[in-house]
Amino acid sequence: MTSEQLPLNGLEDKLQYHFKNKRYLKTALTHSSYANECHLPCGSYERLEFLGDSILGLVVADYLYRHYPKLPEGDLTKKRAALVCEKACCGFSRQLGIGDYMLLSRGEQRSGGKTRSSILADMFESITAAIYLDGGMGKARKFVLRFVVPLLKEPKPKTFKDYKTALQEIVQKNPEDRLEYVLTGESGPDHDKHFTVEVCLDGNVVGKGGGRSKKEAEQQAAREALGLMGY
Length: 231
Fold this sequence. Notes:
By secondary structure, the protein is mainly alpha-helical.
């Protein structure tokens, strides 16, 4: 059975949220390769993923701020990074079995797109945005916290080497400095993309990186910058 044949109400049961507008959910599950192959007017999950990334960050930051009143800003930042990183979001998607509902091109399916960490992570964010657009922030918050709160209660929380946060903490010691990540390249077919990113400090390139997702490329660029700065 292909991903497009699976009934979405089965996924809605897992999400514990039933959509008024099913198009939001279908778009959230549509990879760009499938949208291009089938010439879908509604496009892929990418715009929803952009919105969901911000919603996820806000919900987690708000929860940490309210429930950890004595934790300093630096520790709050590290906790948030560990809870919204690709590894964490991929894990959330695996819990939901999102791979079984993805709409992928034939090439993407053959190359293992259903199990690719970057896609699974992005689709958790796109689904978060879909819930937000369909039901509001309260429903989106409830959905996100259902996965985030148990991670916080683990005796040994999952760690994540967040080079972007480490670089930001160094740069913000000089408030006048401006840090920016610039996408400089995108190559390969839809099922095997490669992104390249430069990180610039006050307009000067201080690091370059590449990866199979924009986030991974940004992390690698920040990693190179930290190395060149002696950290």
